[in-house]
Every structure is written in C-alpha cells, then in structure tokens.
Amino acid sequence: MASEYVFISDLHMGGDEQLTALDFEAELLDFLAELEERGGDVELIINGDAFGLWEYAEVTGTEKLDRVIEDHPRVFEQFRATGEVIDIPLIPGNHDYDLACYTSYTDRLAAYNIVLEPVVSITREVDVDGDDGDETPRIWIEHGQQHDANNRMPDWGNPDALPVGYFVVQRIVAAAGRYSGRARGDWLRDIQSVAPMEEIPRWLLSNYFYREMSPYLRAVVVPLLLFFNITLLYLFGTVLEVMGILPSAFFTDNPVIHALGIGAVVLEFIIAINVVVIAILLLLAIPLWLFRRDLRRTLDRFGVMLSGVRVGQGDEPFLRAARDVLEANSDVAVFVYGHTHRASLTQWGDRLVINTGTWLKKLQHVETWFSRLPGIYYPSFRLNYFRIFPEGDRIVVEYEEIETDQPLDLTRFQRLVARRPPAAEPIPARTVIDPNGTLETPDGAFERDSDTGADADPGSGKPFATVDGSDGDRADATDRTGEERD
Question: Its GO biological process terms (predicted)?
Fold first, then answer.
C-alpha cells in the first residue's frame, strides 16, 4: 500500500477535430511535474474518463488511443517521467470504456508508466496506526457510470455491449467536433462541457444568437426583445385608458413621447411589431398547447419520453451507491467516484464520499440583465485534486484547486449583458476522520417511494458537506450552478 493517494478524473483527452484541444495542458504538465519532483510512496489514481475515446468517429479500435498520444505527446512524456517515480494506476470510465475491452491497451499505456486496471472498481488500504487487529481501512474507488442508467455497461469488457450514452456521444458530441471548424469561433467544441445533456438545445440557441446570427439581423432583433416588456406595459396601460382608469395622455397621447421626434416614430414602430408578435403568439398558444398535450400522451403510451434521453439525474444514484457500499463494508472509510463533473466532499459521521470533479471547462447558465435576451453559458475551470493519507490513527483528506486563468471566450456583447454567476460552494481544504468511527447517513436520504419509485425527499439531491472541516457540521456544498434543470 502507498502512504499517500492522489485522485483526479474526467480529463477527457481526445476527440475528433477540435474536441482534442486541451485547455488545461500547461496546468496538467505542471501538476504531473510537481508529483515527479516530490516523489515518495505516492499513487496518482485516475478514476475514469482520462481519455475521450467515445468522441472519435473517424478512427476505431485501439487506434483511438494512438490518436490521443499523437495529439498530446508532451502530456504522455510527462506521464512517463512521473510514472518512473510514483505509481499511476488508471481505471476506465464510460468515455474510455474501450480500455476495458482490449488487452493491448495495457501494454500501450505501460509504455508511459500508466498501470491500467480494466475493472469497474478498485480499493486501496490506508496504513493508519493503532489497528490492534482491526481491519485495515480501505478506500473504494470507481468512476460511477454503472449507477447512471444511460451509461451503465450491460456486459463489462464486451466492446459491442454499449449503453445509450455511447450513441448520444457519437451522434451529437463527436459530430460537433467534426463540424466545429465551420462555426464562428471554437465554441462548438465546448459541447462536451454542457451538463446535463438536456441543456444542449438551449446552449445551441444561446450561441446561435450571440455568435452565429448575422450582426445586422441581431441589431434588429435585440431592440425588439429589449422593448418587449415595454410593449406589454404599453398594452396594459392602453387597456386601463380605455376603461377610464388612466387619463388618455398617459400612454397613447403622451406629450413627452411626441417630443422625441423621430425617436417617437421608431419607438412606436417597435411597439407595433411587438404587438403583432404578441397577437400571433396568443393565437398559436392554445392549439400548440393542445397539440403538445396530445403528443405527450401518445408518446407515453409507447413508453417514449418527449424530452428524449435524460441524463441530469443529479447525485442521488451515486450517493445511494456510496451508502450501500459503506453499509456493506465496515472497513471502507472513503468512497471515491467521478463521472458527474461536480466536485464535492460529503461527510456522514466518520465516512466520506468524494466526487473528483473534472478538468474540463465548466459552463454555467446565467441570466442576462435584460430578461428577454437568451441566457449565457458562463465558462470557468475548477481544476482540482484530492489527497488521502494517514496521520496517526486518523485519515486525512486534503482538497486543492489549481490556479488557472479563467477563459475569456465570451463575446463583448455577452460580457456586457451577462450577470455574474454565483461563486461555487467551497470544499473543505482539510477533513479528518476516525476510520474506527461510525457511518451516519442523513435521516430519510435517498429513500425510494414504493409506488412511484421517486425520491421521497426531493431536496436530498445535494451532498451534505462539512464546509469548515469539523465533524458533524453539515452544509450544502454541491456545485448546483444551474446544471440540474428540468
């Protein structure tokens, strides 16, 4: 067993065309070089989705990894150098599931001192003092895709037994990589950072409006949208004037508006257009609502969801799985997973559940200062890693974020109208647990309703994390930045 374990996941290196770009290459190289320089009895464990092999449609089989290595030679050379000093085990996730299907990958990665363990989960022991014959505490490590209905592998190790998530990635994400060069800018390659996947249509609409729409058309549409609320107020005021509640000079014959000259004509023209749009929407609203209602009922009879494949299930399935593992294995003190791209630390008494997050860019939907303009997906990074090591008879978990320049890939107009997103909830820098302590899950958390199968506590979707590192003080610390929406 090692004296220290370092965890990262969800690097997603690789993909067709621009998907293979690595925004965090410099930070990853520095991180690996620091581990090489420090050395010691350390394991760097990559718990899944190190590579984006699903994102390739132009190459197949083991050639996918060759393409990743070809695109990122500096990273793999640094893996080789770091792996000469410390151990680097890697387990497959769903996006690099091929690693579990072909034995040739083991030797290919070994050439760069990466030890492939092609299994669903692994464990590691933590050598704390004072065991006195008790079981040595363990860390349970997995990627987590088996708890996601859309990405669960039905026959682990079978390259032809693929979940629905694979086909979604191939049809949508990989295609975006192939066509990204046709876009104005490289925004299309960020599709792999959109979560949950139901957000993709709204994300596409936002980027069309702010990036792909003709600037001349946008110059016409923006004033119409900005004055939409004014138009509603104008219509409401006109009704009040007709009813005699307000004087006629308040809206329809306001001398201040007439004093604007040509500006008054432009304003009245915009209001007239908006009135026509509102009238059309009102005429279509009822038949469209009836059609959608009937379509939904028809699709329900055939077992088809109107919204398509849903992937935004939150963290409940993963926390439920962690609870089951911790309850069934008294020697497991820490449960580590990734997959959801939401870094978090959850403390249940003297047991911990850790989500290793992602090194990909994160996109957070934020509203604009003007309610009728489409929302904007604000980019940021949360490069991070967890360290787990013994300290006397205790287990210490340290969390660290790597400083990086925030991406400035918003247009000037987007930066002008976008609201600032709220800061991510903090994760404690240091958490200490007693491996001989008890598991204390929140009362009623993750229970299933026997009739509907729904979560009995719909508010339990966020992990309970100790934001100050003290035992027992739990607060909500999940990064719920608009990523989970119906």
Answer: lipid A biosynthetic process
Letter for the amino acid at 218? Answer: R
Two tokens, residue 482: 């608009």
For 4-182+315-433, CATH number? Answer: 3.60.21.10
The Cα–Cα gap between 342 and 480 comes to: 8
Domain layout of the chain by residue ranges: 4-182+315-433, 211-302
Nearest to 206 by CA among 393, 363, 386, 71: 363
- List phi, psi (to 5°) of 101: -110, -20
Give 372-428 pLDDT, tens digit per residue: 788 999 998 889 999 999 999 999 999 999 988 777 788 888 888 888 888 888 999
Beta bridge partners of 115: 89
Strands annotated E in 11-133 = 42-47, 89-91, 115-116, 121-125
- Tokens encoding 314: 């939150």
Task: Find the mean pLDDT for residues 420-447.
Answer: 85
Name residue 288's amino acid: L
Q: How far is CA 165 from CA 10, 126, 152, 158, 485, in A?
A: 16, 35, 9, 16, 19
pLDDT tens for 55-81 read 988 888 888 999 999 999 999 999 999
